[in-house]
Amino acid sequence: MGKYASGDHSGQNPTWYWTRGLHDALILRTEAIDLSYDHTRRNPVRSCFQIHLDASTAMFDTSVRCIKLLNYKILLDDSACGGYESGGIEGCYWMQDILKFENGKYILEITALGEDDFKFIVRFDDAQVERI
């Protein structure tokens, strides 16, 4: 199992990972997208979870604008605002994250701050990160 955290400059992080950290980035909105299943592709992308950020307020990495998690599954959302379905993660601040790699999948654990601290955990196959 690989485990990565913001501030880890070991060189073993995925190339898309924000090693400098997103602490204090504002989570503007999230979007869950179901995609057409292309059975002709070896590893088809079936779904995408997008996290749009205003990283201008982040302490370290201010270049990240959008994180796209491919073939995702939300494992935990204990946000005080009522969870992802009611937009709970939106409008909160990214405090820290831990990225793990287990059994061929990534697991991203985000601690965010809204009215209270909460954890948001999502498993996914791969990611794309849009930067300015």
Report on the structure:
- With 132 residues, this protein is mostly beta strands.
- Helix content is 0%, strand content 51%.
- Strands 1, 2, 3, 4, 5, 6, 7, 8 and 9 form a 9-stranded antiparallel beta sheet that branches.
- Strand 6 and strand 7 (105-113) form a beta hairpin.
- It is globular, with a radius of gyration of 14 Å.
- The relative contact order is 0.25.
- Which structural class should the secondary elements be placed in? mainly beta
Instruction: List how many beta strands DSSP finds.
Output: 9
Annotation field: number of helices: 0
Uncertain segments are: 80-86
Distance between the termini: 31 Å
Helix content: under 10%
Q: What amount of the residues lies in strands?
A: over 45%
Radius of gyration: 14 Å
The mean pLDDT is 86
Order of helices and strands: EEEEEEEEE
- Profile the largest sheet: 9 strands, antiparallel
Overall outline = globular
Features:
mainly beta; nine-stranded antiparallel β-sheet; 132 residues
Task: List the topology elements.
Blueprint (H helix, E strand, L loop, with lengths): L1 E4 L19 E10 L12 E8 L9 E7 L2 E5 L15 E10 L2 E9 L3 E8 L1 E6 L1
Antiparallel strand pairs: 1-6, 2-3, 2-6, 3-4, 4-9, 5-8, 6-7, 7-8
Summarize the structure.
The protein is an all-beta fold. The protein contains no helices and nine strands.
